[in-house]
Specification:
By secondary structure, the protein is of the alpha/beta class. Helices cover 37% and strands 16% of the residues. It contains 4 helices and 6 strands; from the N terminus they run ααββββαβαβ. It has helices spanning 3-15, 21-37, 101-114, 131-143; strands spanning 71-75, 79-84, 87-88, 92-93, 120-125, 148-151. Strands 1, 2, 3, 4, 5 and 6 form a 6-stranded mixed sheet that branches. Helix 3 (101-114) runs parallel beside helix 4 (131-143). The longest helix has 17 residues, at 21-37.
Length: 153
Amino acid sequence: MNLKQALKKSRTIKENDVNILPVMNIFLLLIPFLLLTAVFVHIAVIELSLPSLNKGQGSQMQEQPKNLILVILAIRETGFQLKSLGFTFDPLEQVNGQYNYRQLAEQLKQIKNQYPYAEDIIISPDARVKYDIIIKVMDQCRETGFPNVSLSG
């Protein structure tokens, strides 16, 4: 191979090189945009009371069995419906698009006054109810004296 052929070959290689400058410009704009719009993990803690395994075992003082009172709170897109033994509550409809937590607390207090040893409540939300609403209802139940909250699907 002579010198002319070698020069010709080197020129064709340089002509076929890919220009990556436009791609680098796109990445230069895209990476900061993606980093600014990224949502990082938010950790939240929900305290639930679970039954203990050692209830009824050992020689501990035996507790008097309490009458179980079933309290069910249905959360719908339109409002709340509370059901309990001996009580008939009307559904609590939303007021101006907001859930009525104050009336819910009053109804829960009525149940708590009638059955002061009742601590369990079952919350049954619809699938379309946001988690924020469920958490607010759980907090409301704990504040009115129902620490044992269960979720039912």
